[in-house]
Design goal:
Layout lengths: L13 H22 L1 H8 L6 H4 L1 H24 L1 H12 L2 H7 L3 H30 L4 H30 L4 H19 L5 H8 L15 H11 L1 H29 L5 H29 L2 H20 L3 H29 L5 H29 L2 H22 L5 H9 L2
């Protein structure tokens, strides 16, 4: 398709954008099928007692997803976005069956290795494709819709899987949800999703007002170095993303065990586990758009500090109402951060290397799953579950302070407004 027939913007690409929102909801649902059920399955069917060993599935998931995120960005530039998306769904085909029929824990770990690859390829690609379609003006709104769909589906599927597990057992019924998601995701990605790489090339050909004044063509090594270390906004976003997903990885593995330790029934545990991504998912519809109006930096900083306060409350609470309040607060803080970090990457990175920068950012961000599994498992084994939550609260506080000191505002409109008043 000639770039002369393409247009950037949400309204001009609403049909494809909406389809990609649906696809990413299915991607998120693949994670949601596990969140409530697997920690309970580990204890009740496989009789695992060590938290570090129990969290091995989160560690493997995080490492495989993080590494795949990096390659997803590079491959989407080389081969196109759509082939990478389809490959991600093909990788997911055996996952539900492996979870259902696993005779030992190593099968669960292997299934999460594949699930991490699936998530890295599919979620990264839907992010890149939406940024391609909407152009620079509505990145925050676009990322809000993308992440709201994904984590809203995590929440709904977590709650539904908990309900099904309580009424029909831990296996096989809850994991049939994932089987349905794989079929729908593969069919939609193969038959309905269209390539968006030319939209990025169209944007690259236009004058931009982004924050990055460096070269428009960079090697993979230079993109990695800029996003990880040398560019203040990109590297600040990468560290904040890592800490944010450390919190999510820890919640995935330890929160169900902490809540269940007080005698809460599985249904209430599932509801508490679902509240965090539910508020996170729905809140992003507002916070993504707000970052287009207010700018990125302060929303990200406040979000990390809010997460620190929420984790501290989870560590001291011991009742369903207090934990519900804390998980809602944790979801709100995450909603401020999640789409805004992705929008900031899009602000700074030039379209010619933006997909690779998104891949590097998501490499570090999703390394947080592995970091959360290691930190949570070791601290919980050495001390207890609540100490692990306190450790995550301290890291979130440090991340928020670092952002306040180092990151600059990246939104082009906010930058121009600031410059006009100085």
């Amino acid at each position: 398709m000639s770039t002369t027939t393409l247009r950037l913007g949400l309204r001009a690409n609403l049909a494809q954008f909406s389809l990609l929102v649906v696809v990413n909801a299915l991607v998120g649902g693949m994670v949601g099928q596990e969140q409530t059920v697997l920690p309970l399955l580990a204890e009740q069917e496989f009789h695992l007692t060590g938290y570090t060993f129990l969290l091995s599935y989160v560690l493997v998931f995080g490492l495989s997803k993080a590494a795949t995120n990096y390659f997803a960005g590079t491959w989407s530039d080389r081969f196109g976005r759509r082939p990478v998306l389809i490959a991600g769904w093909l990788i997911a085909i055996p996952v539900p069956a492996m979870l259902i029929f696993a005779p030992n824990w190593s099968w669960i770990v292997a299934a999460n290795l594949l699930l991490g690859i699936n998530q890295g390829l599919t979620w990264s690609t839907t992010v890149i494709m939406k940024v391609d379609l909407v152009g620079p003006r509505q990145r925050g709104l676009a990322m809000g819709f993308n992440e709201a769909a994904g984590y809203g589906a995590v929440a709904v599927t977590s709650a539904l899987a908990g309900y099904l597990a309580e009424h029909f057992g831990l296996r096989p019924i809850p994991f049939l949800l994932g089987a349905a998601y794989v079929v729908l995701g593969l069919v939609l990605s193969t038959l309905a999703v269209r390539e968006t790489r030319e939209h990025a090339r169209l944007e690259a050909a236009r004058p931009t007002h982004g924050s990055d004044d460096g070269p428009t063509e960079l090697t993979n090594r230079h993109v990695f170095t800029r996003t990880t270390l040398t560019e203040p906004a990109l590297s600040s976003a990468s560290q904040a993303g890592l800490v944010n997903n450390l919190n999510f990885g820890l919640s995935w593995g330890l929160f169900p065990l902490l809540f269940a330790s007080t005698g809460l029934p599985v249904g209430q545990v599932g509801l508490l586990v679902a509240l965090y991504p539910a508020v996170w998912g729905a809140g992003q519809l507002a916070t993504g758009a707000l970052s287009d109006r207010w700018g990125r930096k302060h929303l990200i900083t406040v979000g990390m500090l809010t997460q620190a306060a929420a984790l501290a409350l989870i560590a001291v609470a011991g009742t369903f109402p207090m934990w519900a309040l804390a998980t809602v607060l944790l979801g709100a803080g995450t909603a401020m951060v999640y789409p805004t970090l992705l929008a900031a990457i899009g602000d700074v990175a030039h379209p010619s290397w933006r997909a690779r920068s998104v891949g590097v950012y998501r490499l570090w961000r999703d390394s947080g799953y592995a970091a959360g599994a290691v930190l949570g498992g070791i601290v919980a084994d050495l001390i207890d579950l609540r100490a692990a939550v306190w450790a995550a609260a301290a890291l979130s506080l440090a991340s928020g302070i670092s952002l306040a000191l180092r990151m600059y505002e990246t939104h082009p409109r906010t930058q121009r407004t600031t410059e006009s008043t100085t």
